[in-house]
Amino acid sequence: MRVGLFVTCLVDLMRPRIGFAALTLLEAAGCEVVVPETQTCCGQPGYNSGDRRSARVLARKLMTEFEACDYVVAPSGSCAGMIRTHYPDLFTDDPAEAERVKRLCERTRELTDFLANVVKLERVPGTFEGKVTYHDSCSGLRELGVKTQPRALLARVPGLTLEEMPEAEVCCGFGGAFALKFGDISSHIAERKCANIAAAGADAVVLGDLGCMLNIEGRLRRRGDTTTRVLHVAEVLAGNVEG
Amino acid sequence: MQVTSMHFKARAKEKLADAKLQAALRKLQGNFVKGRADRVAELDNFEAIREAGAEIRERALANLDLYLAEFENNATARGAVVHWAETAEQANRIVCELAAQYKARKVVKSKSMVSEECGLNDALAAAGIEVIETDLGEYILQLAHEAPSHIVAPVVHKSRDEVSDLFEQKHGKPRKTGIAELTREAREMLRPHFLGADMGISGANFIIAETGSTLIVTNEGNGRMVTTLPRVHVAITGIEKVVPTLEDVATLLRLLPRHGTGQTITNYVSVTTGIRGAGESEGPEHFHVILMDAGRTRLIGSDLQPMLRCIRCGACMNHCPVYQSIGGHAYGWVYPGPMGSVLTPLYVGLENALDLPNAATLCNQCGVVCPVKIPLPDLIRKVRERQFERGLKPWWERAGLALWGWTARHPALYAIMTAIGARALAWMGGSGKLIHNLPLGGGWTGRRDLPAPQGKTFREMYGRHWRRS
Ligand code: SF4
Fold it and tell me: Which A residues in the span 166-195 are in contact with B, Cβ-Cβ below 8 Å?
């Protein structure tokens, strides 16, 4: 099975480690992984800012780059959600393209969803000594139904225990450009998430979206928490956690 | 109502720092959020009811002209008079003319958000007519000269202590502290007004085409008095509130209280049909229904039409992380939260509410809880698209988007830019790998850090694989 890894722009720029962890996991599942070299961004920043045209251009570019893959997998609910739930909206007035989009959507999966439901990964490479809590990122949860998949996979990591936090499904306040434009409100919402994380008393909060990671880690550190780790689920599953 | 949505940012900042408001908002999360979840869990066919509710509203909107005509016919047949108001000013004028026609000096009102849209109370006061709000929340706000901050619980931003102080000061009676005592005192103050009013003004949660009736749901019973005691009853609402049949309304009533207040049903559901008939002892002698457009028909047939399905339950704001953080006043008009972020710019003008559709994380908690399945985040995004198309986005945002879009289309250049960016940010992060103060990114780093990148991009690190193959 030929799987195209869509690294996503934030992982590329901020945390390449997560991209490599995703690669490890897909290979562990026996996939032939290709990483199209020209990939950049799915178009979400433009789309969510009301700029449909630029989003459409980037959507077309991505479609072409991943044309030859059986699946497109992204370590991000928000980018996979952009493709699966929003690309069709970008091409409603273009029936020729609509068919291509539909095929892309059917083949696109968020990483944990792919691992748990498509390749049904039984053994995960990683180990983790300690207690983690899981934050459900909005797009993954509410656009793609990613809820049990990461938990089922984490349950297979030796040494790891999961402690649910209160309000795990409530938004962390990231919201893309919202975090910059309305920083006060965004940080206020993040603070509530951090208090919930603290209530779980875990060694690490694990999640599946880089935007939320940066937001939560940024607020945790500012509120003086230097110990709770913020980890992408791929890092934990792959055992690719920074020292 | 005056629009102050332009000041959203500044007011939001004040609200975040308002400890009393923050405490009040926390209550809301508990009562309404949990209440809704419990009431929904009781229904084994909840999704089917929700589906039916959305379908009913959509059907009504698809045939709006027909159902409105049917409503008018049936209402007229029962002795009501139907008025059409194209604008909020027209609606005010009609009410003032009716008050003059019936020589009304005193008006009692039950809760109506449409009358808030019009600023009806001010218009009546300007015409020399005394207006008394009789919904407890609205009564408190009238005494305090404040605007509602929530469409179902208008006074949710106030603590009980503040109400005690207000009543003591305005009523001139010994200070009460219990909710029951405070309510009793308000009732005592309101009773003579009910008996002395010449006109009652209500809103309508729904208007029913097949019977020509208006319907309100209330918990205090004041709505019944307003619609039956005075000799004239005026109901004012938006044209989109029409529902084909009583049966349809019954379905919607299974959703509205559960989502609004966490009740299976409100204490009162009042269906008002026509005037007092011969031999009947109750009801008004005159019944007027004012159906207001004020921007609604502009949405019909557009990609924003689903917004008109709204049954004003308030669930979207109760569940919204932004509303939960700042309350309703910062939104600057009648409708706050996600539904307000769509409606306000559309009703008062995109340019007068630029921040609202952008002040959302698009987390879709609102869309998930909306009882009539309005895809709120999608509609919020569509309002952003309208802003973009009309050039209403700030230059720096447009420039930033254009630059990003262009670079992302040129992978070689993109690779260089991101490599430079990753290094620059990593350098700024220093040994602690945290950026405390990002130039031009004060929005981010004002109250949180930015974790620094690893230093090289994925593309650089993976590069050798590409070169090998
Ligand atoms: S948009 Fe939906 S959830 Fe919000 S008030 Fe209207 S009906 Fe209720």
Answer: 169-171, 173-192
